Amino acid sequence: MNKEEFLNGVIKKSYDRVCVMSVKPEKEIVRFRHRQLHRDIVVKLFNEDVPACRFLSGIIHENLPEIYDVYDLDDGFAEIEEYVSGMNVGEMLEAGLFKYKTAGEVMRQLCAALSVLHENGFVHRDIKPENVIISDKGPVKLIDFDACRRFSRSKYADTHILGTVGYAPPEQYGITQSDGRSDIYAAGVLFNVMLTGAHPSEKLAPGKAGRIITKCTQINPEQRYQSAEQLANAL
Length: 235
What we know:
Layout: H1 3-11, E1 15-24, E2 27-34, E3 40-46, H2 51-56, E4 67-73, E5 76-82, E6 86-88, H3 89-93, H4 100-119, E7 122-123, E8 132-135, E9 140-142, E10 149-150, H5 180-196, H6 207-216, H7 228-234
Helix pairs in contact: 4-5, 4-7, 5-6
């Protein structure tokens, strides 16, 4: 079964297309709505396997999207997950900066999601405003696991250099292998952007927040918080 047969057979049997959310060379994201239940889902079609999606399909956590099913296709890989209704951090920043209390709560819930990934050997590698959604139902959701990879003690550096410029730490550019502390770095940048609208190298948040962000974004991973739990406790 290829992607077209998957959409026309498995999906369109019960769902109607709502909109195409994103089209890139490596993936397509489409929103569908169930005809009877009127519940929306997101279908992601990839050219390559996404191991993190397979792992998350067995996980239910309030700060991660629920993945209902995954499919191996003749021309790629497909995933069906819940549609998270809400606004991402980038969209919310268009209306103004976050107060410390609100930003801190977003960060604590982000840390909870990262803990699940890190404890199971995964590194997200693309923490940024667009990938953190404050859902209409309340919980913060970490999304988009395309760049996610497993940490391997046998590797010296990442095989594929991925991530978003400004948020990705130095090690994600092939210097050494990324691990959970790479996500800590990106989370620190995100925290600063929520509070100041700028990268910490341009404008650092004052007070306690600035101290937390400075520790998150140390060049040497050994000098950062060593886990998402440590960062959550500092917040």
